[in-house]
Design a protein that fits this description.
The complex is a heterodimer of chains A (233) and B (283). With 233 residues, chain A is mainly alpha-helical. Chain A is built from 10 helices and no strands. Chain A has helices at residues 2-17, 19-38, 50-77, 80-86, 91-116, 121-148, 152-175, 177-183, 187-196, 205-228. The two termini of chain A are 24 Å apart. Chain B has helices at 43-50, 73-77, 94-104, 110-118, 134-146, 164-179, 191-197, 215-221, 244-255, 269-277, and strands spanning 3-14, 17-28, 32-36, 58-63, 66-67, 79-82, 152-156, 183-188, 200-205, 208-213, 227-232, 237-241, 259-264. In chain B, strands 6-7-8-3-9-10 form a 6-stranded mixed beta sheet, with helices on both faces. In chain B, strands 2-1-4-5 form a 4-stranded antiparallel beta sheet, with helices on one face. In chain B, strands 12-11-13 form a 3-stranded antiparallel beta sheet, covered by helices on one side. Chain B is globular and about 70 Å long. The two termini of chain B are 35 Å apart. Classes of the chains: A mainly alpha (233), B alpha/beta (283). The interface between A and B is medium-sized, with 23 and 25 residues.
């Protein structure tokens, strides 16, 4: 446990010193807040939660994926991961430490978004819960990409297109019917549907089944990568 | 003294190329052992096998009596490493870099300042690693390796590319470690460093240990010419071999009061290596 905490603390300190990464975590909550306060709340035709509901799936689909991949790839490239593993940190302990850090920051960002959208009580809980589930799914893909990448450039090259697909397809589906039929099977689309109506009746089992199926596929990809690649190489 | 490292008939090949052939060596407790060889000789491969990063294709390698392929948590806690890559966190301060490992090894945080003082980095406590010079970064890597007071220290080319004064400071640290009972396994291609630091050395060439023993003993063993160099007051240099006619000539030079200086010229590790392999160490 001390090794997981050591990795997590190190990662928080590193993120605070890395303005680019820090900006990625706070960018969407800040944009959602600004649009809600200065556009949605000033208009009678736009719901207060509209921008939050629009940005939330992008946040859950993109930020954990790209960051998890980049953190692992950077540590592999700079051999700091090798030093950790040589110091008896197990690869799974490292991944839990880094993943926990990413998930916690996403949960905080989601909380800010939920509060900007004016959610409270059970709705706020549901909002953060579904965002954390979505972030966890993205985290598995990001971890798999990070493990497969030997350096940051290759992780960016792999993670960015994937993140663009998962995060922007729900938005494109609003404008194009063809996209919507594909988007339905994506976890981010289901998150988007749930964000549009936060009532308990909209949190149906079939939505969770699609998210669960996505997560299983990503988990499988992650396990494959974890078993195939020696992280200290 | 207990054997800390034992390698018996260790072999390693990558694809179809054999890089280590029948490696045998023993390192005793509190010993500074040097593995000398040019780049590509197989020094890092040996360290990787000993630290469990690589599996050998044959033979046995063990640390503290435990096979290197089955190193336990306790063994890992007794090992410190300075490898070819620093693996430091560039954005974090010196203190924070060590804090990560203090937590992993359950070392009190107060120890961080002590170890930074030891490597003379106490003034750089809050300095990010990205702002350190190469010598300072290397001292921080050594501080990280010493933080949990390991019983065995692996130093892979610890002074490579460093200026002479930093090199001397690192040598002092290595001696201090030995004084405290730490066993040091050092790889280098600097023969002066090996002669100065090591109790025993192995000369490695193309994956084969070509010679093994105390540096002075190796030099004496290969001192076949037994020559003496005399610098005369007129500037002329005379080289004489160790026979009776030379003894007379030396006596004559002294009688004529024409000797400026006289030196015996035993080979050093570099010349021994060249003699055995035909290669130079810093290739």
């Amino acid at each position: 446990m001390n090794r997981i905490l050591a990795v997590m603390k190190k990662q928080f300190k590193d993120t605070l010193k890395n303005k680019v990464v820090l900006l990625q975590f706070i960018m969407f909550p800040v944009i959602a807040f600004v649009f809600t306060e200065f556009v949605a709340k000033k208009s009678d035709e736009i719901d207060n939660f509209m921008f939050v509901a629009m940005f939330a799936p992008i946040y859950a689909g993109m930020i954990p994926l790209v960051n998890m991949a980049n953190i692992i790839a950077e540590e592999r490239e700079k051999k700091s991961l090798k030093m950790l593993i040589m110091s008896n940190v197990k690869p799974y302990e490292y991944l839990i430490g880094v993943g926990g850090h990413v998930l916690l920051l996403c949960a905080l960002g989601s909380l800010v978004m939920a509060m900007s959208g004016g959610y409270s009580g059970a709705e706020l809980f549901r909002f953060v819960f579904i965002m954390v589930i979505g972030a966890l799914a993205s985290l598995f893909v990001g971890a798999a990409i990070g493990i497969f990448s030997k350096n940051q450039s290759s992780s960016t090259a792999m993670a960015t297109p994937f993140a663009l697909v998962t995060s922007f397809i729900p938005m494109l589906a609003i404008f194009n019917e063809n996209f919507s039929s594909v988007a339905r099977i994506l976890y981010t689309q289901q998150i988007s549907f749930m964000m549009a109506d936060m009532s308990a009746t909209n949190f149906t089992w079939d939505r969770f089944a699609i998210i669960g199926a996505n997560m299983l596929v990503f988990l499988g990809l992650f396990i494959f990568a974890y078993k195939k690649v020696d992280l200290k190489d | 003294m207990e054997n800390v490292i034992v390698m018996e008939h260790v072999q390693k090949s990558f694809d179809n190329k054999q890089v280590l052939h029948d490696i045998n060596c023993t390192v005793k407790e509190s010993e500074i052992f040097g593995l000398l060889g040019p780049s590509g000789a197989g020094k890092t491969t040996i360290i990787n096998i000993l630290t469990g990063q690589l599996k050998s294709n044959g033979g046995d390698a063990s640390l503290f009596g435990v096979s290197c392929e089955k190193l336990t948590h306790e063994i890992h806690e007794n090992i410190g490493m300075v490898l070819d890559d620093s693996g430091l966190y560039a954005r974090l301060s010196c203190y924070d870099n060590l804090a990560v490992f203090a937590e992993i090894f359950k070392v009190p945080k107060t120890k961080i300042k002590d170890v930074l003082e030891k490597v003379k980095l106490e003034d750089a406590l809050k300095k990010p690693v990205s702002k350190l010079s190469k010598g300072m970064a290397q001292r921080l890597v050594i501080a990280r390796a010493l933080l949990h007071e390991p019983k065995l220290l692996f130093l892979d080319e610890p002074t490579s590319g460093l200026d002479p004064s930093t090199m001397l400071e690192i040598h002092k640290l290595i001696f201090e470690c030995r004084e405290k009972g730490t066993t040091v396994f050092l790889t280098t291609h600097n023969m002066e460093e090996a002669t100065k630091l090591c109790g025993n050395v192995a000369l490695l060439n193309e994956g084969v240990i070509v010679e093994y023993g105390e540096p002075d003993a190796l030099c004496r063993k290969h001192n076949t010419l037994k020559t003496v160099k005399i610098l005369l007051k007129n500037g002329r240099e005379v080289e004489l071999h160790g026979d009776s006619s030379s003894a007379k000539a030396i006596g004559d030079y002294f009688a004529e009061n024409s000797v400026e200086s006289i030196h015996s010229s035993e080979p050093n590790l570099e010349t021994v290596f060249i003699k055995l392999t035909g290669r130079v160490l810093d290739e």
